[in-house]
Write a structure and sequence with these properties.
49 residues, mainly alpha
């Protein structure tokens, strides 16, 4: 079995265990932040593990 097929199977299995993503709203909020300041960008990078 190729690596990409194995990755697809793993993601399918994961989706069946957890049909929803708890962090999706947070991810959308962070993605929508417009960063125009270097210090703010550095703060966000330190905040997100």
């Amino acid at each position: 079995m190729s690596i990409s097929t194995q990755d697809h199977l793993n993601s399918t299995i994961t989706l069946k265990k957890f049909p929803f993503d708890l962090f999706y709203p947070l991810r959308r909020w962070v993605d929508s932040i417009e960063v125009t300041n270097d210090k703010f960008a550095h703060f966000l990078c330190n905040l997100i593990p």
